[in-house]
Structure formats: C-alpha cells, structure tokens
Amino acid sequence: MSFLSRIMVVKSKAHFSAGGARAPAAFEGTRKKKANQTKNRVAIMIGAFTLAFCIIGGRLVQYGALPPEQVSAIPPADRLMASRPDILDRNGEVMATDVRTVSLYAEPNKIVDVDEAVELLGSVLPDLDVKGTYKKLSSKSHFQWLRRQLTPKQQNQILSLGIPGIGFRPEKRRFYPGGPTASHVIGHVNIDNRGIAGMEKYIDSQGLADLAAVGMTSDAPLEPVRLSLDLRVQNILREELVAAKDRYSALAAGGVVLNIHTGEVIAMSSIPDYDPNNPIGALDKDNLNRMSAGTYEMGSTFKTFTTAMALDSGKVKITDSFDARNSITIGGFTIHDFHAKHRILSVPEIFIYSSNVGTARMADLVGIEPHKEFLTKIGLLTRMQTELPEVATPTQPKVWKKINSITISFGHGVSTTPLQTAVAAAALMNGGKLIPPTFMPRTQEQADEVATQVVKETTVEDMKTLFRMNVQSGSGKQAAVAGFDVGGKTGTAEKVVNGRYSSDQRFNAFLSAFPIDKPEYIVLVVLDNPQAEKPGAGTTAGANAAPTVGHIINRAAALLGVKPKFGPDGNALLVSY
C-alpha cells in the first residue's frame, strides 16, 4: 500500500470516527429546541388569554361601578317613580295624589317583525298611531316611547302578546279624586308628573323641580301639602256656579269665598273648567281661570271703594247728601243714572240706588290723585301677590284725568281681577286691614304679621251699614238668607265690544259679606253676559248674581261654622206644633 493510500484510509477512519461521535448531540439539540419553542408558545397563549380575561373582568367591574346610563328619552327608574306630595284640603281630604302605573316602550333593534308588532299593539291600543309607531319600530335606535301611563288591563293584554323588544317602565301618575271640582286652584301636571299650572306648579317652584332637575328626587312618600280650601264649600260653590251659568245662559261664571280675617281662600271656582285628570282642555281660552287670571271692569261694585274712599278721606260723612238731579257732562261724555231719582240723594241712597252721578260727585270732591292713591293702597291697581301662579295684572289709564277718575268711581276705566276685588272688600269689613290672599292655611297671628292698615275703623262700620242696607232695601234683596245677615253691593257693567261699550252685553257681579254685624267671609260671584231667566225677568246683577250668592251662603254657612240667628233679638225661635 502506498503512502498516499494509507493517508486516505486514515482520513476516512478519522472522518467516520468523528461523525459517529457528534450525531447523538446534534439530534438531542434539535429535540430541545422544538420543546422550548412549544413551551414558549403555550406560555404566550396563556398570557394572552389571561390578559384578555383581566381586561374583560376589569371592564365589567368598571361598568358595575358606574351609575345606570340614561338611554335616549328614558330617565332612570328612580326618577320615573319620583313622588309628588299629596295635596289635601284644610280638613285633610285628598285633592291630589300619586298612583303607580307603567309606560310602554320598545327597543327597535330587537324587534323581529315590525308589521306584526304594530298589528298586535293595535289590537290592544285601537287609537295607536300606526304610521308613527311603524316609523319608531323601524328605526335603528335602541329606545322609543310608545305609550305613556297604561292601565293595568292594557299592560296585561300587551304582556300576553309576547312581542320581542317590547317592555314596560314603572311610573307614577297624578290622580285628582275630585276631578274638575277645584281644577283652577290645584292645577295639573304634565306627562312627566311635573307641575305646570295652579298649586301643582307652585309646589315645584318651592324646590321640587330643582331637586328633580339634579336627580335628587325619590319614590319615598313626601309630606302632604295642605291647602286653605274646604272641599265641601268648594263643591257647593262650583255646583251653584254651574247651575247659575245654565239658569241664566251665561257665557261663564266665577266665584270666591274668602276668610276676611286671615286672607285664606276657602273656595274659588271658574266655570267652564276642565278635568285635571285629562287636562286637554286646560288651554282652551273659554276655560280661563277668570277669578285670578282674568281682568274685568267690575262695574258698580267699585262704588263700594269710591264710597269708602270718600268716607275715609274725612271730606264726606255718611249723613251728607249730593245733587243727583241732573246728568254730568265732562269732556263730551255724559254721566247719568240708569234708575235716576232726579233729586238730592244722601250717601246711603247713592249706595242703595247705585247712583253714578252721586258717586261721581263724591270722587270729584276727593280728587284725582287721592283717588288713584286709595285704589293703589287697597291693592286694586297692582298685581296681586299670592301662591297661585296664574295672576293677571290690573289695567288703568296711563294718565289719570278728571274723566278717568269720574268713570272709575262707578267701575269703568279700570280692569282688575275678581279675586282682588274680594280681597279689597275684605279690608273694608275686617277693621281696615288689607291682607294678601293665600291658598295655604294661615292663622290670625300670621295674618296680622302681613296685614296693612288701609282704612279707618269708623269707615269699616259705615261700610257694613251700607252693605246691610243694600240687601235689606236695595238691589241686593235676592241675596238675603234667613238667619244670616247678608250685606253686599251689586255691579252691572257694560262689556266692551269692538272698543265700545255694548248696551246688551253685561258683566254682572255681587260682592257680599256675612254675617254683616260681625263679618267673617266675603262671597263674590261674577256672571259673564247672563240672560233673563224667563221672559220679562231682569238681566241686572240683582236678578242673577245676587240670588246665586244667596244660594251659596245658604248651603255653606253652617259648614263654615257661622251660626244662624232668628228672632228680633237674634235668638233662635222655639216653635211648638
């Protein structure tokens, strides 16, 4: 074997020897590498899943800690169920309260068949707006109101239909047990149970609306709100006004019963009215609250204040007389009496016969500025301050001239609210104190704190005498009630039609106080354009407003705690049979 051949053999052996030694190590490294890669991949997957679950869990915790989200127009359940306080009359009778109800809503994104859903809902709600409902259910929104405040029967019927995407939310609905009995005083709420008229609106203005706005209301019962109204007297007043409107074919009627010592409104009504349980007619112009939200020329009832002004000024005494033989002509206008006596009249005669001429002469004697100051002092020319939101502002001439003072003296030229007229009259019966009216309970002590002395006590005594004389022998005879000494003043004002006074359209009123020897209450009734009850009957206030007041006093006096008096000495007569 040659040298080269031996070298080749040695290299070959060395090669195989070396290769055989390294092969197991190479195979072992490959296996380890693959195992390590697998472990790394599993670890990454575990880490990824763990991270994902941690993120999801964290978000769930975050969502759980957040307050409920308001979706579209639907407020949180606790706000939907927020309570309003009950409204009670002075004797604790419920006049307004909350009742539980439900409202129907839809989640359009969950509706399977819109046509079927609309058809099924229409079978329970026949007045359903089909087109509007179809549009709502076809939208891409997540929430739509369909019907607010369902009855329990409607809820059960819809539940039995089993429509996907249809649900109910609990709510509270305001309920007025008396219906329209005191609608203009109590007012009403909107669909969201927020007060928008009357004392309901006043309650919201005292802080309830602000709490609702910031979401601080709850469904916990609230302390009831007690009013000064007496539901029994309120019902009598309304019934008599409805009867008078029908009896005399009047356009409208209104009335108020006022406690002259505290300023509490015991009853107030305006006909036509509306049912606050279904307040669709609340905005009808004919359903206006005429007692506080309407202003009118009060006619001859204003002679009450002109006479009181003259007596209080010291320039006129009740024993004085004035010339009423002829008419008065001022600035092209002629002032005359409807039932002229054509003679000199005493102050009581001027009041009883409702003489325009005599009243005008008293006003002229006092003067223009003192006249304006007196009417302002007793609250007839400024906006009345009370809890009821619906209060109108009186109107008066921008510049008072002599002709204005003369016509205002007998009730033409100034428009004020009937409630203000009653309040001003109370000051002439209670010792001379003007007390702002209130629809909330008020004690005598509380009334004294807000009262303002506006006339002398001697003036009050004279006015009580004149009031009583007018019912005994004047135009207020039909207001007399056996056992109760009623006093008052009629007012028959010509209405303004197209800028001119109409001789065949009238606004009648009777302003009364009883018992007149020691007055407790003012009762005022107004009738808009009443007609004769029967052919030949009169249309003046003495023929319609006065007897209406008599009917009210006859039914309500005992409930108000006024005891009747009979016999010459005022004691009850014992009659044996």
Terminal Cα span: 177 Å
Give the rounded overall mean pLDDT.
87
Give the C-level CATH assignment of the largest domain: Alpha Beta
Level-2 CATH architecture of the largest domain: 3-Layer(aba) Sandwich
CATH superfamily of the largest domain: DD-peptidase/beta-lactamase superfamily
Strand content: 15-25%
Extract low-pLDDT stretches.
14-21, 69-80
Query: What is the overall silhouette?
Result: elongated
Q: Return the CATH topology of the largest domain.
A: Beta-lactamase
Q: What is the helix content?
A: 25-40%
Tally the helices: 17
Compute the number of structural domains: 2
Characteristic key phrases:
577 residues, alpha+beta, Penicillin-binding protein 2a (Domain 2), Beta-lactamase, 2 domains, five-stranded mixed beta sheet, five-stranded antiparallel beta sheet, 17 helices
Describe this structure in words.
By secondary structure, this protein is an alpha+beta fold. It folds into two domains: 80-226, Alpha-Beta Complex (Penicillin-binding protein 2a (Domain 2)), CATH 3.90.1310.10; 233-556, 3-Layer(aba) Sandwich (Beta-lactamase), CATH 3.40.710.10. The chain has 17 helices and 18 strands. The chain has helices at residues 3-65, 77-80, 114-124, 130-137, 152-161, 183-186, 198-213, 231-247, 303-313, 347-352, 356-366, 368-377, 402-409, 418-427, 444-450, 457-473, 545-556, and strands spanning 87-88, 94-106, 144-150, 166-175, 188-189, 195-197, 225-226, 252-259, 265-271, 321-323, 328-330, 333-335, 344-346, 433-434, 452-453, 487-497, 500-514, 521-528. Strands 1, 2, 3, 4 and 7 form a five-stranded mixed beta sheet that branches. The chain has a five-stranded antiparallel beta sheet with strand order 9-8-18-17-16, with helices on both faces. It has a two-stranded antiparallel ribbon with strand order 5-6. Strand 17 (500-514) and strand 18 (521-528) form a beta hairpin. The model is unreliable at 14-21 and 69-80 (pLDDT under 50).
